[in-house]
Each structure stands twice: as structure tokens, then as C-alpha cells.
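[agent] plan:
  1. take the single chain provided in the ticket
  2. run structure prediction with default settings
  3. attach C-alpha cells to the ticket
  4. add a short note for the reviewer (M.T.)
[agent] executing step 1
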Amino acid sequence: MTNPTNMKFCQSCGMPLTDEALFGANRDGSKNEDYCVYCYKKGDFVQECTMEEMIDSCASICVREGAYPDEKTAKAEMERFFPMLKRWSKAK
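[agent] step 2 finished; step 3 output follows
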């Protein structure tokens, strides 16, 4: 999950934001370019959770989508990447 280009990633779940349709929504309905539609709606996070809970919920999705070969690898990579994301860097 490195960022060799200027690719945007959801600053909550790490999903690549490859299309504007994936951007979350602010309270006023405008697009939020920091968070994806699955994490951020109407100006709020869809679920309150810890970084560890987010990693647990994302790992199986990433494996299913082919981003990682197994959940152990997915979780290890996310544990390195997520602390750099805006939502989780504030938690420290």
C-alpha cells in the first residue's frame, strides 16, 4: 500500500480513490476527497471504530479483491500503512 504516485487513498480505510464517485460526502453534500463513500457520509464517519477494528473489517475485503494473498499479510501491511492515514494519525 505504498503511494509511488499521487494516488489518493481513503484516509480511514486505505482504499484507493481512483474515481470521484468513490469520494465520501460532506454535510452539505459536497464531495470529500479525504474519505471514501463507504467510510464517510453526510459529514460523519459511517462507523465509530478503532484502527484495529477497521483493519479487521478491511482485511477480508482486500484478500477477496486480490490486493493480498491472505488475511495475515493484509493485516500486517495495514498495521504499517494505517497509522499514516489522517483518521488514525490523530489517534496517537
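[agent] step 4 note for reviewer: DSSP finds three helices and four strands in the chain.
[agent] ticket updated
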